[in-house]
Amino acid sequence: MAADLLPKRKSVASKAGAPIGDQRADDRHRTVLQVARIETVHGDELCILRNVSAGGLRANVYREVAVGEPVRFELRTGRAVAGRVVWVDGSAIGVQFDRKVPILAYLAHQAIEELGRRVRSPRIDIGERAVMRVEDREFEVEIINASQAGMRIRTDRMLVVGSACKIVADGLGERGATIRWCHDGQAGLQLKQPLEFRDFALWRTRGKADGNLQ
């Protein structure tokens, strides 16, 4: 893993830049701002990738992890990388991959075209109650999982595909959506306005956020 992902002291832990004077930094280390799903022993959550290299990455996470803990990242392209946490500084972590990977190719949207799959926002399990409003009806549903772009809900109500609705959830407020599919007691909703990463992170970490959601 690139040495710049392993800070020697806390004061530089938040800076994963290349060493001064290293002319090869651009070849082995890039800065990105991309949402991914992180899978930990405590459960799954969204995170934001900051710096990446073939051997590791730096990310901001909103679930507690410890040094030495195994983690796995699912990228928007459908690719996945696994490794172990090598340092933690607040919400920032450094991860060393189990093996070197062509990470920039993994992150590139072009990889989806090559694989014949479409790009989709990382999705995590939610399991929380919410209120759904459709025209003059209002009833309770369960949010099974969600991404920044949409949700899967469980409901025993009849829903019309293509109809507009609103979802009201604790910590998320009221969000407009369109019903994209409905069968077997479940439905897929596409949010009219995708959630900003900060809003999604605050929703998922309400009551336990440390205020460092940058």
Notable traits:
45% strand, six-stranded antiparallel barrel, single chain, 214 residues, disordered C terminus, 12 strands, disordered N terminus
Q: What is the topological layout?
A:
Layout lengths: L24 H4 L1 E11 L2 E10 L3 E6 L8 E5 L5 E10 L2 E6 L5 H5 L2 H6 L8 E11 L2 E10 L3 E5 L9 E6 L3 E11 L2 E6 L5 H8 L10
Antiparallel strand pairs: 1-2, 1-4, 2-3, 3-6, 4-5, 5-6, 7-8, 7-10, 8-9, 9-12, 10-11, 11-12
Helical content band = 10-25%
Give the DSSP E fraction (strand runs of 2 or more residues): over 45%
Largest sheet: 6 strands, antiparallel, barrel
Q: Specify the structural class.
A: mainly beta
General shape: elongated
Assembly status:
single chain
Number of strands: 12
* Low-confidence segments: 1-27, 110-117, 208-214
Listing every helix as H and every strand as E from the N terminus to the C terminus, the arrangement reads HEEEEEEHHEEEEEEH
The Cα radius of gyration reads: 19 Å
pLDDT averaged over residues: 79
Strand order of the largest sheet: 1-2-3-6-5-4
Total of DSSP H or I helical runs spanning 4+ residues: 4
Distance between the termini: 25 Å
